[in-house]
Amino acid sequence: MILRLSRQNVRQTWPAYLGAFVALVFGVVLLGVTVALIGAVARSAEADDVTLAERTELNDLSSMFGTMSGISLFMAVFVVGSTFGFVVATRRRELGLARLIGATPRQVRRMILLESGVVAVAASVVGALASTALTPVALWAIRAYGLTDLHLDAPPAWLAWSIAVPVGVAVALMGAWRSSKRASRVPPAAALREANVERRRPGVVQLLVALVCAAAVVAVAVVARDMPPLFAMVVAIFLPELLVIGVMCVGTLLLPASARLLARPFVGAHVTARLARDQLTAASRTTAALAAPVVAISGIACSLIVTLSFVADWTTAQDRAQLEAPLVVATGGNAEVADSVAADPAVAVADERRRVGLTVRGEREDVDVVDLEDAGAARGLRAVRGSLDDLHGATIAVSETWTTDAGGDVGDTLPARVAGKEVRLRIAAVVPDAPGLYGEMLVPEDLVAPLVAETPPELVFVVPEDDENPEEVRAALVAGMPDGGRVLTAEEYLAENDAASRRANSFGLWILLGPAGLYAAIAMVNATLVGASQRRRQDAVIRLLGATPRQVRHAAMWEAAFIGGAGLVIGGLIAAFCAGVVRLAVDRDVPGAATTIPWPAVLGIGGTCLLLVVTAALAGARVHVVAGRNVPEPDPA
Questions:
Q1: Structural domain count of the chain
Q2: Rounded CA gap, 485 and 107, in Å?
Q3: What is the rounded CA–CA span in Å between residue 319 and residue 386?
Q4: Within this chain, do residues 184 and 218 fall inside the same structural domain, yes or no?
Q5: Which residues of the chain have pLDDT under 50?
Q6: Are 315 and 439 in contact (CB under 8 A)?
Q7: For labelling, which of 393, 500, 541, 631 has a CA lying 20 to 30 Å from the CA of 135?
Q8: Distances (CA, A) of 216 to 139, 156, 197, 299, 572
Q9: Which helix (H) or strand (E) holds 334?
């Protein structure tokens, strides 16, 4: 009986569930396509003819797709939760009537969960079919945009369905869980009430979760100065999600209060601003639901954008601190370029960067082959622990980042396979990070001599003789440069690396945050329109009291601006805190590193959020102004 009632409710009031349906369809499509892409990548990576670089490329693609789905599903919970929160709020009298005629709290709760299940099943079916149709398009796009040159074959469709559909249903149930609990607490007397005062006080569980999140912030702030940059970056990526959850737990208190503070300068000059302030104060749940996606997308997106920008500043500063060579030659894979540089009498050191593929700890790795004397003179190679004098034979040097990731240190041994032989490589030294100069693993030439002969150098770091002018040496090298070679100054090389890193970061952010941004847009528009529908009679009464249509629209605009502004302020504080953690770690590791904040991207996120919220509010107000003309005046008796 409850299931039949849930189906009837969804069928009769389907516009209220439209936002959740669209969000779930999109989520299932995204997850289904992602599973298919990861399956295609895994099948291709197992092929025998795949090179080390291609396998690394495929692994990076899998990681990127997985992270994208995780962030998007996190946002989907907000959309579904806000939708069902509004559904419960608008149906209090109906739910009270159900309680009045004998429905138990458990039955009411089950009815709301089954309604979410009905929406989820319909959305999952549509999403699964759409994901199957879009998978070939996604595989084509990956090759068209140059993410890989390999041909990827889609796995069977049932694999994507078996994962995407259950996850979609689970997301719907998670989003509706809190709303179903609130619905079960609606008393029978609600059927007789004309109005209801919303409770702003968070529940016990919500307060406990908020306290845990606050404790995490305090703990991070205490250890921020001693945090390694890599760990700080990881914290800045995952901490915003935790902070958003904490803010939402106390959202009915925090968000209306923040919106009231923003409204204070305007309420004295504009009566519509005062009306908007009073409305957002009275409707605390609507305020929190509308601000939630703004807080989430601004906090998470801005944190990621600024963090990755600071990481690019950090890696460039590391390279600049290490690089001693004033000139860098890119060989383009032509060994003759390196030979011509080494043969120039004005060149004192021609330090060649070569990388070979070795199996270390069961994984194929790109390993740098170094000449210690040349690398020390041109790339500032040195040891922070251990000694590079011990780097010969079956030994390896690793970067500080590698020790943080893998947990190894000087004296440990790593199982490896070199030229078909199993060997154990002893870690002889730990070297500073300089990603643009060398990788995380370095081995001596005598260990991999047969592989070195087959591998042309990628770069040559050039140190001229003491009595030579670097610009004159550069001109001479350019004049005699074989095909494919390019001669760069040290600053030009660092700038190219930095630009390439930022382009890769920007592309990755579009992939990661694009779906999440669409979710946030759906949530903002959905919450604004449903919230406006709750105020239909209020707007009609205001019109009957003498307010003009223009004033009603202005009040809606002020309310949306205050709520959106409050969400942006709190999201900005989250992003600023996370960025500050990364910046402290970077300054401690490389003092004087540049600080680059991508203001166009940050301001673009804020402007887009405000535009969406205000536009949806104006659209809802315009509809209700027209509808309000036909609402009869209330009987004074």
A1: 3
A2: 75
A3: 21
A4: no
A5: 630-637
A6: no
A7: 500
A8: 40, 43, 33, 16, 18
A9: none
Paired sense of beta strands 347-360 and 363-370, if any: antiparallel
Tens-place pLDDT, residues 565-604: 999 999 999 999 999 999 999 998 888 888 999 998 889 8
| Crossing angle for the helix pair 284-322 and 271-282, to the nearest 10 degrees | 90
C-beta of residue 433 within 8 angstroms of C-beta of residue 453:
no
**CA torsion, points 437, 442, 448, 449, in degrees to nearest 10?**
50
636 falls within a domain: no
Contacting residues for 142 by C-beta, under 8 A, at least 6 apart: 37, 61, 148, 152
- Cα distance between residue 62 and residue 400, in whole Å: 26
Asked whether residue 191 falls in the same domain as residue 212, the answer is: no
Does 592 map to a domain?
no
Are the C-beta atoms of residues 482 and 334 closer than 8 Å to each other? yes
| pLDDT attached to residue 364 | 79
| Same domain membership, residue 205 and residue 92 | no
Q: In angstroms, rounded to a whole number, what is the distance separating the alpha carbons of residues 453 and 321? A: 31
C-alpha–C-alpha distance, residues 548 and 621, integer Å: 12
Non-local CB neighbours of 194 within 8 Å, separated by 6+ positions? none
Confidence (pLDDT) at 497: 92
35 lies in the same domain as 63: yes
Note the Cα 576 to chain centre separation in Å.
15
Token pair recorded at residue 102: 């004998």
User: Both 244 and 351 in a single domain?
Assistant: no
Q: Which of 437, 457, 484 is the last residue of a domain?
A: 484
Predicted pLDDT of residue 328: 96
Alpha-carbon distance 225 to 234, whole Å? 15
Q: Which of 129, 164, 196 corresponds to the end of one domain?
A: 196
CA distance 634 to 637: 9
Q: Which has the closest alpha carbon to 440: 394, 397, 501, 391?
A: 397
Asked whether residue 7 is assigned to any structural domain, the reply reads: yes
Q: What is the pLDDT of residue 509?
A: 77
Residue 590 inside a domain? The answer is: no
* Residues 404 and 342 placed together within one structural domain of the fold: yes
pLDDT of 198: 58
Contact yes or no for 355/366 (Cβ under 8 A): yes
Instruction: Count CB neighbours of 145 within 10 A.
Output: 9
Same domain, 245 and 223: yes
Give Cβ neighbours of residue 275 (< 8 Å, ≥ 6 apart): 542, 555, 558
| Tokens of residue 542, six digits | 């205001």
Residues of the domain holding 387: 332-484
Query: In terms of pTM, does the model score above 0.90?
Result: no
DSSP, res 388: G
- DSSP 8-state symbol, 190: G
The pLDDT of residue 533: 67
How wide is the angle at C-alpha 122 spanned by C-alphas 121 and 128, nearest 5°? 85
Q: How many residues does the chain have?
A: 637
Q: Are 90 and 533 in contact (CB under 8 A)?
A: yes
| 628, 539 Cβ separation under 8 angstroms | yes
Same domain, 343 and 476: yes
